[in-house]
Amino acid sequence: ENAKVEMNAGGFEKFLIENHLHKAIENNELILYFQPQINLSSNKVLSFEALIRWNHPDFGLISPGDFIPIAEETGLILPIGDWVLKEACLKMREWQNAGYSPVRVAVNLSAGQFLQNDFVHKVKNILGETLIDPACLELEITENMVMHDVNQAIKSLMELKKLGVQISIDDFGTGYSSLNYLKEFPIDTLKIDRSFICDLDTNSSSVALTRAITNLAHDLNLKVVAEGVENLEQLTIVKQQSCDAVQGYYFSKPIDDTNVLQFLKKEHNK
Ligand code: C2E
Ligand code: CA
Ligand code: CA
Ligand code: CA
Most buried one in 7, 65, 135, 259, CB count within 10 A? Predict the structure, then answer.
């Protein structure tokens, strides 16, 4: 991921990004990287989170923070979101065809994408076309996305659950929402935001908050993933607190699909 310089979007770059983004899909410039989530009871990979990058011929690898907000403003997030879903399922199909047992992939959704009328239909079609078990697809939504239109969100989530896909709340603890929705929404997993994890080794408030979130989630029969675990101290604390899984640089940065195959090969031989 660090092989190429990541660009920061200033004003001029933003203008360039906007002008080039609509061509990025047809020019095959978008790629998915994957970051493993490690199950703490088995020490094996639980799933891979798909993280988009834009491999621009002149600017190099552009990170999502520099173009997803622009894609959301311009509506390009809809075709990009469709592409991400399809590509994630195609990669799962490739890995299964290579002989590895099915591994789950988590896909990040944007509000505009999730609130489309035909979103559930799209998901169903892509799973059907790629012959992927719905249980292998995890959709990451945020608190703000569901609060935007609560009734529509509940309706979509119910249909997605019926289809058999997994639902996670991403960046948990950072959004503007009441805890009330946790009992209304059919979700499977809370992903504790990195901001609570990054200072676990030095900040007792973060320790208290991650413990409280983990206990709350478990009482509601939800799984808990700690995001952004970078060192052994943080890992030790979230293990003590009975988090179910971790994701972060301590285990692996996001990797490209070739490295995913290497990763699966190693796991297979463990
Ligand atoms: P996110 O969903 O919260 O993804 C986690 C981000 O944290 C990723 O940044 C990942 O590389 C980074 N990360 C993981 N472990 C660590 C760690 O231990 N330390 C630190 N400092 N960072 C870590 P990335 O790939 O730059 O993605 C940024 C955001 O862009 C994502 O945040 C997500 O909101 C958005 N995004 C990425 N891919 C997609 C996509 O396909 N669709 C949509 N709508 N948004 C996406
Ligand atoms: Ca995410
Ligand atoms: Ca996150
Ligand atoms: Ca985030």
Answer: 7
